[in-house]
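Q: I'm building a small set of examples for a reading group on sequence design. Run inverse folding on the following structure and report the sequence directly after it, with nothing in between.
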């Protein structure tokens, strides 16, 4: 990283009198000696404080001279504060109406699609109806049947649960459920037709595909039998993590070992290939990834270098030899450079000499005929506009091998198309909801009523009804996951049909030649395995995939560790080169970049939408909205090397946009914080605000009144009804929580500290004590390095000799952060060591001050701080630095002093530790106290 590049490029924020963010200004520069431009993001609010407009830098600047410009996102709210109408310049408009229970009852969108949902007397959905534009009759798209409460239903633990769910793909039956609520037996039947069904009369295929699961007492899967009868078994360690697995009695993963941060650092696959990962002891960043065969032959040896912000700057595979051709030294080294907004602007690497930038794969190299003349170095440079749209890609592979590609961006939106010889037609290039209409000229794409890609026409022929065209059709279940793919191609010999059925842990692939292939998929530690089983053939093909840090399949090995295929990728996912033992071996590789399936169209399917690597953007808008920024087509905020998108929604390790609060005990004592909770909601319009409540038993009926008092901006829920809490009740650590509540010397503050780290480990998001006063809105996106927490600034605990630490009253994290897992484990370990004393009446706890110290060392800010120091050595350095400076915001992960002021009822932040202890001692146990 060039430090000169980032000089004088702060991010500035202005707020209104309510503390809501109005304007954010960032400074953009691509070269240290280059010009600096400002990027202003604007937000506007109505009289009640609801955010009604969001403007990105490009459109906000354009609006200064053009009155026709609309905001990127415009929202209209009901009198109760619910978002009724959302209009996006990219995704179009959507209108939603809710019933009295705040469930979605009706929906309309800009494509002319309308839907409604019917509920039974228990407010359970029973049918979902849709009407597409141009249709007159509504169609039942989903239908639900619930189990009764008879003896057989009780025996199968399915009373009141969904027994049959008819969805756009077919029918899904749940025969029985585990104690944890997870399905034990599930059967899928597919619709006969590829068109949308109309339930309950849609015809079904006769085949039934049944999957069975086994769980341990904690609800962890320990066995699965797929629809073809293949049996997987899983061994788990004491922490519930997979330590070994078997498929049909054969070891797939022989061993898997984890470090304190839950990162896999050593694993041995079933083919005896040993993979060892090395991580930084300071921040947990991956430093190297090394794989060797059982005989010690080196297969992969990736080394990573980072800039201070955590962006990857260099990757080298030391297992690959240096090659020479045309006076070029060609190494297996990739380098990356970023602008001040951390967008990738330059990359270098090596590629196949016959490569052409586009949707197709480069020519396949065969291992037996590998030739150094087929290699060359390349560099790519990227330019973006102020709306984060790619505008120019320059691909340079030496003299006479430079390709320049330009993207045209719509004047009033972020819709973008590849520029060709003629004029760009944005009106015909996208539908009203922002779905791209052509993959390439003549290759039309059709979208279903849920804005999911339904069909791609790859070859157009003369028949006017399209029956001679080559098409690929996709079918999805109720969750939007693809469960069926059908490809039709015309040849001189007639029509060829191939199909893929996606079932839990199994893909059934049938070809026009009547070949039926079962692809059994399994996770093997960091890597993946795919077992290819042909019907009627006893010899299976085992394909172990070695992955890089993004999960991209770089090497495929067989059951003896021999190389099957090898592949490398450009930064945005295109294949730069690939090689295999033979064309036959190559054709069965489907999982490639980021571990996702590449279709015949060249598109990658991510789970919620499709990605076009040659365009470096998604072909439809983000189903989650602006969760990852106002440009809802951009791939990973144009930083695809550092981050990974798991489903097509948001960067991995992003903090969910929800602010959690917890209250237990008397609800009357919470009344003094009602206005504060409402203010937190008003200040942070980009976040959901939730209050998890564990009231006194005689007050459970008062939660509706509490919800009414707080308004629609704060969601109130009884924690006993939440899935994560029910799972927590089955864990050993629940004993600690129960002791804090019901022990002889109960301590509700300690119980709250136990809940806050358990809750955020499971759900992710921001935790905030109910009495922390908001002083500024949180950024719309919180992102932090792996194996770190975002916390408040430092303080001194005077009760412990001035020990430096961090209050746990507010912090943020991504889901299942291993820091929190280790923190919770250590807390319970300390509790077990003193459970005969703590929360009990005895000599050691007779002095409230001594008892408080004991509690704080097992759960609370002192434990929170000490664990951070123990688990993150870089935290100690940051803590010392911040205690000596007046600027508390130098460290990216210590930020919350800017957003919440911990002026609590106990004096946390308002009093020093001695004053706080005195106040705590004076307070009665039933009160809600935060340490």
């Amino acid at each position: 990283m060039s430090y000169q590049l980032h000089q004088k490029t702060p991010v500035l924020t202005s707020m209104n009198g309510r503390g809501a963010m109005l304007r954010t200004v960032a400074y953009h520069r691509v070269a240290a000696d280059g010009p600096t431009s400002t990027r202003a993001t604007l937000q506007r609010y109505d009289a009640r404080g609801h955010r009604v407009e969001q403007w990105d830098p490009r459109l906000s600047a354009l609006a200064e001279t053009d009155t026709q410009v609309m905001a990127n996102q415009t929202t209209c709210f009901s009198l109760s504060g619910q978002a009724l109408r959302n209009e996006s310049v990219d995704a179009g408009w959507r209108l939603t109406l809710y019933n009295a229970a705040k469930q979605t009852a009706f929906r309309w969108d800009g494509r002319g699609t309308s839907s409604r949902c019917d509920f039974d007397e228990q407010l359970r959905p029973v049918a979902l109806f849709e009407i597409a534009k141009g249709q007159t009759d509504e169609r039942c798209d989903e239908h639900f049947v619930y189990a009764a409460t008879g003896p057989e239903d009780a025996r199968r633990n399915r009373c009141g649960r969904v027994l049959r769910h008819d969805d756009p793909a077919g029918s899904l039956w749940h025969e029985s459920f585990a104690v944890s609520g997870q399905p034990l037996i599930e059967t899928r039947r597919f619709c006969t037709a590829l068109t949308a069904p109309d339930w309950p009369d849609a015809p079904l295929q006769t085949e039934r595909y049944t999957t069975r699961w086994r769980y341990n007492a904690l609800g962890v899967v320990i066995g699965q039998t797929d629809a073809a009868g293949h049996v997987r078994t899983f061994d788990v360690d004491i922490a519930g993590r997979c330590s070994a697995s078997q498929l049909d009695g054969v070891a797939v993963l022989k061993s898997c070992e984890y470090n304190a941060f839950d990162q896999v650092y050593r694993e041995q696959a079933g083919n005896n290939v040993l993979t060892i990962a090395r991580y930084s002891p300071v921040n947990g960043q991956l430093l190297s990834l090394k794989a060797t065969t059982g005989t010690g032959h080196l297969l992969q040896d990736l080394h990573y270098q980072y800039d201070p912000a955590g962006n990857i700057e260099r990757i080298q595979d030391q297992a690959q030899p240096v090659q020479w051709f045309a006076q070029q030294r060609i190494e297996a080294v990739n380098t990356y450079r970023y602008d001040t907004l951390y967008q990738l602007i330059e990359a270098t690497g090596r590629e196949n000499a016959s490569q052409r930038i586009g949707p197709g794969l480069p020519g396949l190299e065969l291992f037996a005929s590998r030739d150094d003349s087929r290699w060359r170095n390349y560099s790519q440079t990227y330019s973006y506009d102020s709306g984060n749209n790619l505008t120019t890609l320059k691909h340079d592979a030496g003299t006479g091998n430079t390709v320049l590609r330009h993207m045209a961006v719509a004047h009033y939106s972020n819709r973008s198309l590849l520029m060709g010889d003629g004029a760009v037609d944005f009106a015909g290039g996208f539908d009203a909801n922002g779905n791209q209409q052509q993959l390439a000229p003549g290759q039309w794409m059709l979208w279903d009523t849920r804005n999911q890609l339904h069909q791609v026409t790859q070859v157009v022929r003369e028949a006017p009804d399209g029956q001679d065209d080559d098409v690929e059709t996709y079918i999805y279940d109720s969750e939007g996951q693809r469960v069926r793919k059908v490809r039709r191609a015309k040849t001189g010999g007639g029509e060829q049909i191939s199909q893929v059925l996606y079932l839990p842990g199994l893909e059934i692939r049938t070809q026009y030649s009547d070949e039926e292939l079962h692809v059994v998929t399994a996770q093997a530690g960091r890597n993946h395995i795919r077992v290819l089983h042909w019907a009627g053939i006893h010899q299976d093909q085992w394909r172990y995939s070695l992955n890089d840090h993004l999960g991209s399949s770089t090497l495929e090995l067989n059951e003896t560790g021999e190389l099957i295929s090898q592949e490398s990728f450009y930064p945005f996912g295109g294949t730069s080169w690939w090689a295999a033992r033979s064309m036959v071996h190559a054709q069965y590789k489907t999982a490639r970049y980021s571990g996702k399936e590449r279709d015949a169209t060249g598109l990658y399917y991510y789970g919620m939408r499709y990605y076009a690597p040659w365009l470096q953007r998604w072909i439809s808008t983000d189903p989650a909205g602006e969760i990852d920024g106002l440009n809802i087509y951009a791939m990973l905020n144009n930083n695809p090397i550092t981050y990974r998108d798991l489903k097509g929604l948001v960067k991995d390790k992003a903090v969910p946009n929800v602010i959690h609060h917890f209250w237990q005990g008397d609800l009357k004592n919470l009344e003094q914080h009602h206005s504060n909770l409402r203010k937190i909601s008003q200040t942070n319009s980009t976040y959901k605000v939730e209050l998890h409540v564990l009231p006194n038993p005689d007050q459970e009926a008062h939660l509706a009144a509490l919800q009414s008092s707080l308004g629609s901006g704060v969601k109130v829920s009884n924690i006993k009804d939440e899935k994560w809490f029910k799972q927590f009740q089955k864990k050993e650590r629940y004993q600690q929580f129960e002791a804090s509540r019901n022990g002889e010397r109960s301590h509700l503050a300690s119980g709250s500290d136990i809940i806050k780290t358990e809750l955020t480990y499971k759900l992710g998001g921001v935790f905030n004590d109910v009495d922390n006063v908001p002083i500024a809105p949180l950024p719309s996106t919180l992102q932090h390095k792996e194996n770190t927490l975002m916390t408040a600034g430092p303080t001194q605990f005077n009760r412990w000799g001035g020990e430096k630490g961090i209050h746990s009253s507010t912090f943020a994290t991504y889901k299942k952060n291993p820091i929190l897992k280790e923190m919770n484990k250590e807390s319970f370990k300390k509790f077990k060591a003193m459970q005969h004393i703590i929360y009990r009446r005895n000599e050691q706890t007779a002095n409230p001050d001594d008892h408080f110290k004991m509690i704080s060392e097992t759960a609370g800010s002192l434990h929170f701080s000490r664990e951070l120091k123990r688990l993150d050595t870089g935290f100690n350095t940051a803590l010392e630095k911040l205690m000596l400076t007046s600027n508390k915001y130098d460290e990216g992960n210590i930020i919350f002093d800017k957003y919440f002021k911990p002026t609590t009822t106990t004096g946390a932040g308002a009093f020093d530790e001695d004053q706080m202890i005195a106040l705590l001692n004076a307070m009665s146990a039933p009160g809600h106290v935060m340490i």
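The longest helix spans residues 748-763.
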